[in-house]
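Backbone geometry:
***
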Amino acid sequence: MVVTSGATGYGKKIVEKEKSIAGRLGQKELAAIGQGVLFGEYYKYFSRQNIVTAQILVTRKVQEKVLNNLLKKGVVPIINGNDPDCTQDLMYNDNDSLAGDVAIATKANQVIILTDIDGVYDFNPCRNKNAKKFKVLHRIPKALLDNSKETGSSVGTGGMYTKLKMARKLLNKNIDIYITSSMEDVGVFLANNNQGKGTLITAQ
C-alpha cells in the first residue's frame, strides 16, 4: 500500500501556471485540483509494471474491508486524506497518522516512511551538526519525542514528531517502522534483511 501526500503541491503548481485562475485558493481547493494529477502519476508508474492501482481517499474512518479486498486481488491502494471533502474534525492532520491507522487496520508487518531526513537523530540534524543518528530503536523515549518537535513543509504537515508518535503506536502492535530519505535505500533495506542507511524502529 502507498500512503501519499502531494495533492496540494500539485494543485499549487497548476494554479501558478494557469493564468485564468484569479485570486488565492485555500488548501482544500488546491488539494482538489491536484489530487487527480497525483494519482495519475502513480497510475502511470504502476501500469508500466502491469500493476493495477486504486485511489482511496479517507477521512477518520479507514475502510479496512475495502483495503483488504483490494490487497487480496493484488491491487495496490494509493491512499491519501480526503481533505477537500471533510470537515476539520474528520480530517487527518498528517499522513504519518494515516499510515499508522492503515497499517493497523490491514495488520501490516512493516511501514516504510520516505521523508527529507535520512533517519531518526537524537537532535534535529538541520540545527545541530553534532546530532547522532540511530541505527535501531526499540522504544521511543519522551526526551526523543520532545526533541523531534518541528513544523512540516509549506505544502504539507507533520515532521519527525508525528512519525515518532505514530511509531510509538505501532510498536505496541509489533509493526516495524523504517525511516529513510532515499528510495534506493528502501531497495537496499528490503534486499538485505532489514539493513539500510536509515533507522529501523522495531519491538523485536
In short: The two ends are 23 Å apart (CA to CA). The chain has two domains: 1-92, 108-204.
